[in-house]
């Protein structure tokens, strides 16, 4: 196994792929580099002298400025490098024309020059999954009954109904799940709109074969208020219940859930083109290997799915800061570029409006794993986007309507961002992590470890080990991962589903009454 990696020829640092002791001599090209300190796995080492104030380069881009002179072989981390990022910036659209044209051709079925081996590899990749067709033309990868409370006051009722309804499962219905949340009342402005939009998105989500919308009756976002956000529904698939109008809301709800199960239980999986797949991409608890293993693996998957007509969505906007120009210059037109600029600057303004430091990142866990600055984190984070052109920019709560790579406005918080991905239409979320987490989202959430140690230690959390990229052929690992994601789409349960975890969280910005 490799001991270290210099990611880009332009880099003036390398990354340790395993713990390296002080005094060890590394062969870096034609240069012998003696380590001045013990270097933890995922952390950086200077390859050449870096003067105070000069840029530290990783991934071929600056990740910060040295705060002191750094000699070859010395550890580079938070003690001697700081962010070089500023506040609101002006951007210039400099599209990567050749890259956009090549990927556009691949997604539109045009001939793109490939080696014979690459052609053979692509032809062996599956182009279908087994999904549940819905009346609106979308396709689910699960056939569940969802209970969506309109307000937090009925959370416990929703949870109780879901637990009792499991005994009525029949046919192809896989589970009954409640999604409690604390909102729907005592909210103002954008917060109330966000709640209504996210709830409506989940009610329309194709992974739900049936939905019970459970209201209280006096809340701000009551059922009648919510209905215009939901739009036209199939009455066999969506039922409504106002608790204050029932003598026994649980008894009434269970009758409706039985009807939903009877309807959804007759729907069978069908062979479906992968162009119906929408996949969300998120990372959390990142470490120094995230941008080397797990995130690039997801990026390769994204490119492969998009080339077959599918859709991917990248979010967590604050973790694009410092790498945003890479995404901006992959926008297919100036309008999308301008929307991406607004995406970035609006989120920076959100921090400023609340009196918070824009670059209060990375987290303690990120730093322990080897990430030193937000640029370092963001450049690794955006590896998940692969190389595809940006085809769409979505507001929070907006649903994807056409194929290709999309950027979604949402914060970095794992639960909030993953819920936003599901609400945007993702049937599956790919979640990379170097530290590990047991959380789930409303849809199957595939946990991808950046390293072997995490995969071995937390095997009940992790679904796929991208650490294999450091030991095995990259194409073989990528193809295996692609097939695994399609197996999840076919119905293979991920670890959080096996554990019975289903979470959701809605973005809150303002006043609570």
Instruction: Walk across the major sheet and give the strand order.
Output: 19-20-18-17-21-22-23
Q: What is the 3D form? A: globular
Number of contiguous helices: 15
Rg computed from alpha carbons, rounded to a whole number of angstroms = 24 Å
Our measurement of the CA-to-CA distance between the termini, rounded to an integer number of angstroms, reads 57 Å
Provide mean pLDDT, rounded. 93
Description:
- This protein is of the alpha/beta class.
- It has three domains: 4-82, Roll (Archaeosine Trna-guanine Transglycosylase, Chain: A, domain 4); 133-270, Rossmann fold (3-Layer(aba) Sandwich), CATH 3.40.50; 272-499.
- It is 31% helix and 19% strand.
- The protein has helices spanning 97-107, 116-123, 155-165, 189-203, 223-230, 249-264, 294-307, 324-328, 334-353, 364-368, 374-381, 414-423, 452-457, 474-490, 495-499; strands at residues 4-5, 13-16, 25-28, 31-34, 44-46, 55-58, 61-66, 75-76, 81-82, 128-133, 139-140, 144-149, 176-178, 208-215, 238-242, 270-273, 278-283, 311-314, 390-394, 404-408, 428-433, 445-449, 464-465.
- 52% of the residues are buried.
- Mean pLDDT is 93; it is low at 110-115.
What characteristics describe this protein?
alpha/beta, Archaeosine Trna-guanine Transglycosylase, Chain: A, domain 4, four-stranded antiparallel sheet, 19% strand
